[in-house]
């Protein structure tokens, strides 16, 4: 289908907030208790059920959640944390915030996730933790990840920001493992506008998380207050928690709808001949092993075959798509090449797969309210655009 008549702009993501959610928010605002309270407790209890009864605490955003996870794991100055450069920069920034050193390793170009062989090769006596990121919701090889962690006595802080309702061998991400961090930022599959949650191993870790999210304060009796370990201001509000509770009711439907849209994408991409144009599609799922929640549907452009080459091709494609009424995004440019990280010694050529994919990766529209015709339009427009910009 080609765009002849003007059509509505199709963004790459749009949150789904129903009337019931808006009504719930109104109730919280009218209740007289608007910051952390009963809704946060109910949200945490519901999340804990979702994650097999493991302890869960919520925070004001996913980055704060990661920072608390690092503190719970006692990661600090002198420690190295191995992670991927193809992520939202928060993943690396939180490592710096606690005073540790992020060590980037290359990605597996098929999954676009951290390469576990490279992880193992990067382990030194200072390595304390691994932060895998499940890009677009696709888990890494969880068996292998935890075997490496066990063999080298490392903590795992899973940046599962994008992976709510993704699965490994049928088990939900978060229902097993070490510290597992989720984000509920507006673009994620389930949102609280801003927010996050951490799945932990023990009531002791959960208690420490509660303290660290509110200045480290320990209350006893009616009037007792103490601080043993200073914390920050990272609590979620009841308004946000009410949104999250309402969203969670739709989790199954959201995941199912995204899977349908992904199937539609693969079918339309084949019809539009995207692979023949050199466009790399996501790794098809093996639903018995690593099941993605299709947080994003991302392709990698053949920048070397397109006008503008490595430096400009993606910009041209994205501009042209926007002119045709289709929004796209970049998730993500490789973190190690940002100016600050270059100042720590990271350079072009160090992580070639990440650098190539970071130049060509494009996020196509994907949200449950999309229709089959929207997917057809995206694939047809992308195909036309790449043909037009071919060298
Ligand atoms: C969204 C996201 C975060 C951070 O979450 P915020 O809630 O925006 O702070 C961290 N890592 C990844 C991979 C993300 O996608």
TrEMBL record:
Pfam families named in the record: DegT_DnrJ_EryC1 (PF01041)
GO biological process, any: polysaccharide biosynthetic process
Signal peptide range: none
InterPro entries: DegT/StrS_aminotransferase, PyrdxlP-dep_Trfase, PyrdxlP-dep_Trfase_major, PyrdxlP-dep_Trfase_small
GO molecular function: pyridoxal phosphate binding; transaminase activity
UniProt modified residues of type N6-(pyridoxal phosphate)lysine: 188
Assigned keywords, A-Z: Aminotransferase, Plasmid, Pyridoxal phosphate, Transferase
Stored Gene3D superfamilies: Aspartate Aminotransferase, domain 1, Type I PLP-dependent aspartate aminotransferase-like (Major domain)
Active site (UniProt): 188
Assigned protein family: Belongs to the DegT/DnrJ/EryC1 family.
Protein name per the record: PLP-dependent aminotransferase, UDP-4-amino-4-deoxy-L-arabinose--oxoglutarate aminotransferase
Organism in which the protein naturally occurs: Cupriavidus metallidurans (strain ATCC 43123 / DSM 2839 / NBRC 102507 / CH34) (Ralstonia metallidurans)
Lineage of producing organism: Bacteria, Pseudomonadati, Pseudomonadota, Betaproteobacteria, Burkholderiales
């Amino acid at each position: 289908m080609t765009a002849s008549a003007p059509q509505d702009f199709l963004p790459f993501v749009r949150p789904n907030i129903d009337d019931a959610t808006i009504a719930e928010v109104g109730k919280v605002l009218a209740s007289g208790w608007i910051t952390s309270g009963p809704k946060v407790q109910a949200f945490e209890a519901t999340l804990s059920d979702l994650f097999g009864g493991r302890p869960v605490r919520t925070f004001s955003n996913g980055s704060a959640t990661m920072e608390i996870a690092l503190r719970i794991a006692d990661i600090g100055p002198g420690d190295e944390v191995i992670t991927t450069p193809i992520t939202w920069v928060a993943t690396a920034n939180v490592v710096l915030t606690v005073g540790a050193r992020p060590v980037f390793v290359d990605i597996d170009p098929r999954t676009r996730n951290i390469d576990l062989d490279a992880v193992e090769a990067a382990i030194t006596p200072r390595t304390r933790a691994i932060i895998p990121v499940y890009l677009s919701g696709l888990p890494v090889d969880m068996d292998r990840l935890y075997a490496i962690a066990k063999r080298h006595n490392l903590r795992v802080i899973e940046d599962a920001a994008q992976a709510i309702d993704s699965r490994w061998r049928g088990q939900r991400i978060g229902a097993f493992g070490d510290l597992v961090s989720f984000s509920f930022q507006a673009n994620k599959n389930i949102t609280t506008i801003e927010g996050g949650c951490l799945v932990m191993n023990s009531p002791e870790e959960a208690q420490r998380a509660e303290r660290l999210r509110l200045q480290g304060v320990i209350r006893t009796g009616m009037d007792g207050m103490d601080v043993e370990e200073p914390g920050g201001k990272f609590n979620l509000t009841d308004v946000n928690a009410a949104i999250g509770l309402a969203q969670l009711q739709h989790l199954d439907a959201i995941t199912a709808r995204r899977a349908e849209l992904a199937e539609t994408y693969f079918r339309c991409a084949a019809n539009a001949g995207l692979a023949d144009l050199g466009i790399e599609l996501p790794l098809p799922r093996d639903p018995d092993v690593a099941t993605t929640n299709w947080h994003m549907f991302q392709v990698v452009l053949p920048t070397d075959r397109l006008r503008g080459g490595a430096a400009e091709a993606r910009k041209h494609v994205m501009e042209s798509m926007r002119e045709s009424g289709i929004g796209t995004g970049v998730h993500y440019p490789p973190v190690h090449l940002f100016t600050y990280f270059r100042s720590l010694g990271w350079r072009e050529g160090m992580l070639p797969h990440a650098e190539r994919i970071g130049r060509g990766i494009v996020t196509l529209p994907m949200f449950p309210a999309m229709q089959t015709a929207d997917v057809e339009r995206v694939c047809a427009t992308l195909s036309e655009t790449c043909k037009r910009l071919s060298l």
